[in-house]
Amino acid sequence: MKGTSNKTVFITGCDSGMGHRMARRFDGMGMYVFAGCLQPEGKGALELKKSCSDRLHIVPLDITKDDQIQNAVAYVKDNLPPEAKGLYCLINNAGVLAYTDFELMTPKMCEEVININVLGTMFVTKHFLPLICKTPGRIVTITSILARLVYPRVAVYAATKHALSGFFSTLRFELQEKGVHVATVEPGDFSTTTDIMQVSIYGSVERSFF
Fold this sequence. Notes:
It comes from Trichonephila inaurata madagascariensis. It is globular and about 55 Å long. The longest helix has 28 residues, at 107-134. The termini are far apart. α3 packs parallel to α4 and α4 (107-134) runs parallel beside α5 (155-174). The chain contains 6 helices and 6 strands. With 210 residues, it is an alpha/beta fold. It has a 6-stranded parallel sheet, with helices on both faces. It has helices spanning 17-28, 43-51, 66-79, 107-134, 155-174, 199-209; strands spanning 8-11, 32-37, 56-60, 89-92, 138-142, 181-185.
């Protein structure tokens, strides 16, 4: 990536996996990194504090909580470098997976996956849009190869990734005139290095069935 020094990026889901690695990578490239962490005092956040420069900021963020999203936006505004007009890049990375047959999922489990993967991502984007438009910057959203392919036991998760693909494809056209770039990334399996198989959802499915 060319000319990244002193640019600003906000990344959701930096506790582990891809978000954690991106935060470290971008910090190493000289960027100002705002790392959204569900557990700001957890292992992942502490590792980032220890291994990265003082350009990296840990920002507490549960993307399903509107007040936390607004607090995150306010924090970024207050801590932008002097030369920054706004936010250069928003990376929507936070997400959760419930890996089980759809018939075993309760409505509450389905709602939790949808609230995190779809609504949370949409509302983070909405609240950060004014800062992004000032630059103008870019929005990058991590979806999944399951936005294109089908696979058993991930019906709700795949549905959320299809929803994100449709949403951001539309948003791309809406923001074109403002000079804001919108992109989606569709990776394969990263479940072994992330917390995407969230225990609160996956464990409850297991308990209710067995």
